[in-house]
Amino acid sequence: MASRPEDFVSRVLEVVESIPEGKVMSYGDVAAAIGSRAARGVGQVMAYYGGDVPWWRVVRASGHPAADHEARALEYFRAESTPLRWSAGGVFRVDLANARWTP
DNA sequence: TGGGTGACTAAGT
DNA sequence: CACTTAGCCACCC
Questions:
Q1: Does any strand C atom come closer than 7 Å to the Cβ of A34?
Q2: A51 touches strand B (CB under 7 A)
Q3: Is the CB of A18 under 7 A from strand C?
Q4: Could you write out the DSSP letters of every residue in A14-52?
Q5: Which residue range forms the structural domain that includes residue A34?
Q6: Mean pLDDT by groups of 10 residues along chain A of 103 residues
Q7: Is the pTM of this model over 0.85?
C-alpha cells in the first residue's frame, strides 16, 4: 500500500497518549493537532487501535464521551478527577471549558 | 480503484 | 437544551 497508516494512526495515538490526566480533547481537536479535520477518521482509528491509548480522554465536541462508552469513561474520569458537568437523569458530560487541553 | 461505513462536527428545528 | 439533517475525512473490503 502506497499509504502509510502510521502517518495518521500513529499521530492520533501520539496525541491521545500526550493528553495529561484530568484533561480531555475533542476528536476534531486531535485531528486538528495532526493537521487534519478527519474527526471521524480519529474515531475510526481509536475504535481499532484505541485499545492501547487513553481513549476516554478523547470526547466529542459536545462534551459527551465516546458513544456507548460513557459508563466505561466515567470510571476513568472519576479516578482522574476530570471536571464533569452533570445533567438531570444521571447524564454527564466533560466540562470542556475547564478540561479541554490544548498542546 | 471504487464504494460503504463510522468511538464526528456544525447548523437548524 | 436536546434531537435531527447534511457534510467531511480516513479506514476497510
A1: no
A2: yes
A3: no
A4: HHHHTPPTT-BEEHHHHHHHTT---HHHHHHHHHHHGGG
A5: 5-99
A6: 67 96 96 94 93 95 92 94 90 93 88
A7: yes
